[in-house]
Amino acid sequence: MNRTKVAIIGASGYTGVELMRILALHPQVELKVVTSRQHVGMPVAELFPSLRGIVKLAFVDHQVEVIADQAELFFTALPHQTALDVVAALCAAGKRVVDLSADYRFSARSLYEQWYQTHTQPELLAEAVYGLPELFRRQIPESRIIGNPGCYPTSVILPLAPILSRGLVAPGTTIVVDAKSGTSGAGRSLSPGSLYCEVNENFKPYKAGTHRHQPEMEEQLERASGIRPEILFVPHLLPVNRGILASIYVPLARPVTVAEVGEILNQAYAGETFIRLLETGALPSLAAVRGSNYCDIGYVLPGNGKQLMLFSAIDNLVKGAAGQAVQNMNLLLGLPEDSGLRTVALVP
After folding, report:
1. Is 42 within the bounds of a domain?
2. Which of 91, 151, 197, 295 is catalytic?
3. Which pLDDT score, from 0 to 100, does residue 312 have?
């Protein structure tokens, strides 16, 4: 069987090594190229000993004109803005791209520029599809650019979109999102805030009300449901390696029952391989999803039924990044959506 040749541009970070881990064992693709400007010539296994004997490549520079012919599909795991022109060059070379930066996630150029920087390839935004398969599966195979969602937005949009779609939340309602992430969400680059002594035995909020994932949540929730909520987003840093746990507090437009909430979520996600709806009152945990592509969703309806509490757990490096990117790749290539992704969570 001929396997599709794939490449990763920007493979030396945590998302890059997670992509290599998944793709190296994917039965229908062949990992041909991995790039890193900082580590050109270094064997992958030297930087990431976990891949010793599994990924036998060395890092090369990401000169698109040199590597474009070596693969059919590209993952770009580059910093925001850096990805803009690289993705454009790959498209000009006739390649399909799953971009893990924020550069092609937004439909509105003005919103992207308000929270990031000038978008130098605005003509490509109309071609890009937001790569959340459970909501936009039909559009993904037709696109040549997939804007892979952010980790926090994935954990929030999946539980919240069905509730908004059913009109249970009035337009303009403020929804509080209290989310916690492991330190790998900050990336592999050295920064004082992610040093061991800063993180260990500590727990703290950061970028409260100013985190750039907030507008991504609001835009994509409106696109998925027709209702644009106001998200009050407070992320926190947990002293763990990986995982996101999101607690979402939703004021309802009318009282509902537990059975109604369960029916709404089941109708939205029945048959979804990577969404696991928990029994009423059961709550998700990081340990149950670590290393997997699953999103676990629970809910509680306290008191008079006018306030809904939604909870979700994902691995920020898998369903929140690399796993979801491979899920999108599978759709682009017409492969079974779960190919290479049926890893069970690592417990303990």
Report:
1. yes
2. 151
3. 98
